[in-house]
Design brief:
The structure is a homotetramer. With about 110 residues, the first copy, chain A, is mainly alpha-helical. In chain A, about 70% of the residues lie in helices and about 0% in strands. Chain A has one domain: Helix Hairpins (Orthogonal Bundle), CATH 1.10.287.1080. In chain A, helix 1 packs across helix 4.
Chain lengths: ~110, ~110, ~110, ~110
């Protein structure tokens, strides 16, 4: 890994590709399908937080069942985001680097 | 990096933390705020695909302006997802590994 | 109903208010909670469409089980949108009229 | 209007249909396109709430510029939800009535 790598998701990309290959799912993994699937998972993630006040949301780790659920939904969002990037040809590390640089110009540090 | 790492986002996490520290944004980065911000970025990502047919969505790389936009929105979703994981104490690599294992049981390869 | 009413959701608003009153849910129905709940339901609605091609999506009515599911998820999104409007003081009919007028200026008919 | 009508959106439906007809937009208004457009508008609605605490979110009406924005985004979500219901053949009033009845069974009043 280069010193300045922001994110290295090659292992995850390869695992998700193998998962799709073994199940003949590649034909389902079009950009728009993956986009809608991402929305579905974001909805499940939002449900975890919908009735919590800010204190309870900040202490989700103290509730093992809810924290396990949170980990799963975050992983699901990550999976579809990674797949969407893969099928559209977006390199996550390069995209992150370029956007961070753009954000630093948009929101200069005081 | 261990051989079996799925995702290493330590560089991104450190960069996002520094970005928030320098701008005094940590007090805004509560789990529920980040969740809503993630939804906002997912909405911007969805807008890219909303009027495209499947062929056009699969050829976004051929349209430099749209592809640049796609890279930025994917990065923004990734940033808020990474921040949400950070403030809730979720390790992306471990969460991904556990969920992949669970998915492999739920959807056995034929 | 006045001739130019766009949407009259008073019956639904009253029914949802009664539903919340009877279950002591008003304290949960803050704007941000309702916003997150709306996102959860939009996610469930998106899941219906995620693996369908455009033809199948246009023929959902022909599949009674899926169509029943679609009706329920559309209703759930409508409920939280109506509640969010109620607790923030937005009149749906007036908001719709003003936005339609604005859209007609933004996108003039040819 | 019958006494037990929950929602009457016929005026809005007709206005949206005329709007689409005049601009030749019906070919764009497939269920999946409208679903993604709905997600885009939900994202814009979420952005209004993302950095607000619960108190500020409850007092949006006191901020004319933000309240005007809120009204517009709620209207936009309503428009795409109504259009999605139209093109998939879902009657909002019937769907709302059936789902309310189902919810009353799922969550019995104490």
């Amino acid at each position: 890994m280069k010193d300045d790598t922001l994110i290295d998701a090659r292992g995850l990309g390869a695992a998700l590709q193998r998962f799709a290959d073994e199940r003949d799912w590649n034909r389902h993994h079009t950009p728009r399908n993956l986009m809608l699937a991402l929305v579905g998972e974001v909805g499940e993630l939002a449900e975890i937080f919908q009735w919590l006040d800010d204190d309870a949301a900040a202490r989700l780790r103290d509730d093992p069942a809810r924290f396990a659920h949170l980990r799963e939904e975050i992983a699901d969002v990550l999976f579809y985001l990674t797949r969407l990037a893969m099928v559209t040809g977006v390199d996550l590390d390069e995209a992150a680097r370029d956007k961070l640089a753009k954000n630093a110009i948009k929101y200069p540090a005081p």
